[in-house]
Amino acid sequence: MRDIKYIAVHCTASNQSTTVAMLLSEFKRKGWKNPGYHYVVTADGKIHQLLAEDNVSNGVKGFNGISINVAYVGGIGEGGKAVDNRTPLQKLSLRKLLSLLKKKYPKAIIQGHRDFSPDKNGNGKVDVWERIKECPCFDAKVEYKDL
Question: What transmembrane ranges does the database entry give (predicted)?
């Protein structure tokens, strides 16, 4: 069993009509051995497991061996702008899934992909200007701090 230190929350950086098959095709196109996420939550709130938790996914470079990666389908709005466009069903399912994962990995820190960016000014947090990417387009640390 892997030593899980993080539960990383992502968006797929796609529109909400993107299917699981489309995601898997994109991972294959990139030449990845494994998907980018262990779990994906579609707009209808359905949780899809793409990879067993014992396997390493391609979610956060440099942290994949110690992370479980979870994504919601979405994160891109009109004009290709980053946006939190989770549906109410996605929000419910994400919370349920993250709660289960936190119980399974109680020492794991739940945070967004953007929170893995370096703290360039050393103030103890990743400021907006320090983020490498916006994913998951909301503050997962704050939203799931009660889990």
Answer: none
pLDDT grade for 2, boundaries at 50, 70 and 90: confident
First to last CA, the chain: 22
Residue numbers of the domain that contains 122: 6-143
Rounded-to-integer distance, Cα 87 and Cα 75, Å: 11
Q: Which of 1-5, 18-22, 84-88, 138-142 has the lowest mean pLDDT?
A: 1-5
What is the token pair recorded at 111? Answer: 């945070």
**Other beta carbons less than 10 A from residue 93's beta carbon:** 20
Q: Tell me, what CATH number does 39's domain have?
A: 3.40.80.10
